[in-house]
Amino acid sequence: MARHIDILEHPQTAIEVATATLAEGLPIGLPTETVYGLAADATNPAAITRIYETKGRPRFNPLICHMSDLAMAERYAIFDPTSRKLAEAFWPGPLTLVLPLKPDSGIHPLATAGLDTVGIRVPKGFAGDLIRAFDRPLAAPSANTSGKISATSADHVHDDLGERITLILDAGASVVGVESTIVKVEDGEMRLLRPGGLAASEIERVAGKPLKRKKKASAAIEAPGMMASHYAPGAAVRLDATEVSENETLIRFGTPDIAGIEKAVAVLDLSAGGDLSEAAANLFDFMKRADATGATTIAFSHIPDEGLGEAINDRLRRAAAPRE
Ligand code: TXA
Ligand code: MG
Description:
Largest sheet: 9 strands, mixed
Distance between the termini: 30 Å
Bound molecules: threonylcarbamoyladenylate, magnesium ion
Enzyme class: transferase
Pfam families: Sua5_C, Sua5_yciO_yrdC
Number of strands: 15
EC number: 2.7.7.87
Oligomer: single chain
Low-confidence stretches: 217-221
Strand content: 15-25%
Strand order of the largest sheet: 2-3-7-4-6-5-9-10-11
């Protein structure tokens, strides 16, 4: 059973125990502002193998490597001017940049799935402090079984992976609630590989140029693992609901008119006031709660595709995708 440490009450113990656990090559449950990560030493092949095994994740799906700051990131990857501008504007924060790996960077090919690029992110808060203390990049996917809903609290990590890891650091609920936005710059053009916790419009404003959306067909190759059914609760998921049927739990955004709402097993309000940041922060926790109501289907009312709505709708489409 995993040991829990509250990082607000015991920050120093958390750093000491976490660095010792990481040095042993063991993955830990690590809070970040987006979601909780399952973090391990990105230079240690045994440690990275444990991440894939703990999650049941396919090894062709590369991991994001987390750094303490831009200076640390520059030891491992080559920055073009646009990527540097984005890093300076948004790090620490919910932005991952895919960049060419430096030769002999020390990041193990298991972390990058053998690619000559690396996805790098500088997380906000405690995770950055821990990486600074450990002085090695941490590979960290979301701390959940592959294909399931991402963890946004230490309890989520505990319920899913608590038997399989030795340490979970607890910083309360993740503030952003959805994973980082992934961007790759090629020949000066910015491509959005995954919408996430930093709105595309913010990135375009700083860069002064448009973010190109990926074509559906090439996406599987570009960001492997991004296409299949993912974020799947036990219940079926139905989107853009305008009415509710028996045995359905409704997750609502704003207060739209929903016919048959009195039939719902339960009604959860992602954000009654229609705030997309609040909705993103609540999303994964509410999906788990809705699942726990025992409904056969979770119905979502329409969520606009602007701002963080793009990331929310991306996750919901995957949650609703046909399962294997
Ligand atoms: O917010 C986040 O990004 C969280 C927290 C823990 O930092 N991490 C996260 O990691 O969501 P993960 O492993 O669930 O998602 C990583 C995504 C995958 O879709 C992977 O294919 C893509 O990043 N990726 C990683 N390295 C890549 C690379 N070199 N080229 C293209 N895609 C890459
Ligand atoms: Mg994930």
